[in-house]
Amino acid sequence: EKEPVTVLVTGAAGQIGYALVPMIARGMMLGPNQPVILHMLDIEPALEALKGVKMELIDAAFPLLRGVVATTDVVEACKDVNIAVMVGGFPRKEGMERKDVMSKNVSIYKTQASALEEHAAAYCKVLVIANPANTNALILKEFAPSIPEKNITCLTRLDHNRALGQISEKLNVDVSDVKNVIIWGNHSSTQYPDVNHATVATSNGKKHVRELVADDNWLNSEFITTVQQRGGAIIKARKLSSALSAASAACDHIHDWVLGTPKGTWVSMGVYSDGSYGIQPGLIYSFPVTCDKGEWNIVQGLKIDEFSREKMDKTAQELIEEKALANSCL
Ligand code: NAX
């Protein structure tokens, strides 16, 4: 039998955490034959709730779950972890300045980066979900220099999946037949959901989404804003932010990273920019990637038209500004 993989979930007493930990324990992140040990970290005010989540995990008798740690001690939480899913952070509250929120998150991500740096297993893979996700990941990278930069990523798979969902609804096709949308840039409302390379598998072979959706106007405006603002629409409807879809996307992200993307398919991940597509190196920017043997690679050579270029640069600009703001908080 396989050795268990240790997965850290920070902010595990929160809403995404509550949806995510059972998915991990069921094998949705690492596959149905991979035993897991869960490390759950939260802060003191949430400790009782966190203990409740641990009780429920025990009560669910998940066959793959080989151990659960519920703690407020960041060192204990990070000990020997192979995969770290960073969901905990400081949320923006009404009336708070952007700089104040950034400053709180910079300080959280500095501390947690150092703990991962010292205590995680070698080659630990990190996924940052907490907002501002791209910039939190960048801070984590700066303060965990021994973790390879290729191992530090942020979540834009939810946005990617939302884009697949919108196309599937529009064309009334199975979502699994829609492939190769792209989310470029920041996990924020400046992200650019791009369908120029997206396809749908049909009984007559593979067709381009642009060919099937006759309405260019919808693709160039409503589709983009719907995906960009989907998070807000969920809050309006649920009075709470996305949780099950975020948890599911987190599983997809790690699943594909570790186990590989299917041939001919790419996914979107926030990764450390190497200058591909003219995006300034040193940002965590969402690109189309394929994964193989536990490594992602940016899909190269896609044609970028003027419409896309402008949107890709605009979201990069926002990340440059966020990076400057984060640096001013150090
Ligand atoms: P919740 O407020 O329900 O949960 C957050 C949890 O983090 C709480 O239990 C809190 O006590 C804990 N926490 C706070 N500071 C911590 C620290 N220093 N160490 C450990 N735990 C800490 O939020 P939830 O709805 O679960 O969302 C979590 C984060 O995901 C938020 O930052 C949110 O903005 C972000 N999101 C990111 C998405 C993405 O696609 N990248 C989509 C969903 C989500 O909005």
Walk me through this protein's architecture.
By secondary structure, the protein is of the alpha/beta class. The chain is built from 11 helices and 14 strands. It has helices at residues 15-25, 47-59, 74-78, 98-119, 133-142, 157-171, 209-212, 216-228, 230-238, 244-259, 306-328; strands at residues 5-10, 36-41, 65-71, 83-86, 125-128, 152-154, 178-179, 182-184, 192-194, 199-202, 205-208, 267-272, 284-292, 295-298. The chain has a 6-stranded parallel beta sheet with strand order 3-2-1-4-5-6. α6 runs antiparallel to α8 (216-228). The chain starts with a strand and ends with a helix. Bound molecules: ligand NAX. Ligand NAX is lined by residues 10-11, 13-17, 41-43, 46, 87-91, 108, 129-131, 133, 155, 158, 187, 231, 241-243, 246. One of its GO terms (molecular function) is L-malate dehydrogenase (NAD+) activity.
List strands and helices in order, with pairings.
Layout: E1 5-10, H1 15-25, E2 36-41, H2 47-59, E3 65-71, H3 74-78, E4 83-86, H4 98-119, E5 125-128, H5 133-142, E6 152-154, H6 157-171, E7 178-179, E8 182-184, E9 192-194, E10 199-202, E11 205-208, H7 209-212, H8 216-228, H9 230-238, H10 244-259, E12 267-272, E13 284-292, E14 295-298, H11 306-328
The structure holds ligand NAX.
Ligand NAX binds at residues 10-11, 13-17, 41-43, 46, 87-91, 108, 129-131, 133, 155, 158, 187, 231, 241-243, 246.
